[in-house]
Amino acid sequence: MGLTAKHSKFLGFIFMVFLTTQCNTLQHSKPLQPVPVIWIEGGSFVMGDTRNKNNEDSLPLHKVDVTGFYLMAHEVTYRQFDRFATKAGFERPEDDGVGRGDRAVVEITWNEALAFCQAYGLRLPTEREWEYAAKEGDKQLLYSGANDIEELLEFARFQNNAAPYSGAVMSKKPNAFGLYDMTGNVFEWIGGYYPFYKEQADSVVWYPLGTLDMRVIRGGSYRELTSTLSNHWRVAVLGYTREDDIGFRCAGDRTAPSNQAVIVAG
Predict the structure, then answer these.
(1) Using one digit for the tens of pLDDT, what is the confidence trace for 48-78?
(2) What is the pTM of this model?
(3) Which helix (H) or strand (E) holds 214?
(4) Residue 66 lies in a domain
(5) 263 near 70, Cβ under 8 Å?
(6) I need a labelling partner for 113 at 20 to 30 A (CA). Which of 3, 136, 238, 252 fits?
(7) Which residues form the domain of 159?
C-alpha cells in the first residue's frame, strides 16, 4: 500500500525529530576540540646539517626514506588542550597570564603531549618525519618555508619579530605542505628518545631507555636566534620538562586519524 501525503509528512516529521535529536546528542557528547591534519606524501631526503655541515649533533648526513604520514597543520592550542585536560582529568597548563584560546599551548610534558595525541588516534612525529615536513621533502630548506632571514619573517615567530610568549597559531604563512609554525613560535616534542647519529648512515645509538628520559624537541621558538631555528637543529631535554616555549603537534599513520581529527588539504 502506497503512502498518503499525510503519512509522508508524518514520517518526515519523525525523521527530522530523530535527526535533530542525534545531532544534539553528538554535539553534547563531543569530547574534544577538532584538530586539522594534513597528509604528507612520503619520499626520500638527506637528513642532517646539509647547509654548513658543521653541527656535530646533526651529522653525519644520511639519506632516509619516509613513509607517508599525517601531521597537524598547526601546533596544538590552549583551546584544544584545555578541552582534553578537562575530559582526561589533567591539570590545565600555565599561560603566563597572557591568555589562552588559539595560542600554541606550552608548559606541556612529553607524556602529556603523547596522551593528547593518542586521544585522537594519533602520536608524536618521528624525527625524520618532522625534518622531512619542515624541509618540504627533498628541498633541503634551511628553515620551514624559507632559506634566509628576510623570508623567514613571513613564516615564523622568533626573536627578531615575536612577543616574549607563544603566539596564535596560523598567524604566519604556511610552508608548501600547508604546515604552520614548523619554525619558531614554540619548540615541538618528538616521539622518540634522543639519539646520536652514528658513523654508519641511517643508524642511531639510543640512550638506555630505563636510565634516561632524554627526548628531542625541534623547530626553535619565539625566543630563539636564527641558528637554533634551522630545520636540522636538534635539542635534547628531559621528558618531564615544562617550559614556556615547548609545545607540540601530532602525527599519525594513514589509518590513524579519528575522534575529531579533521583531514584538510595541504
Answers:
(1) 776 765 666 666 777 889 999 999 999 999 9
(2) 0.83
(3) strand 214-218
(4) yes
(5) yes
(6) 136
(7) 31-264
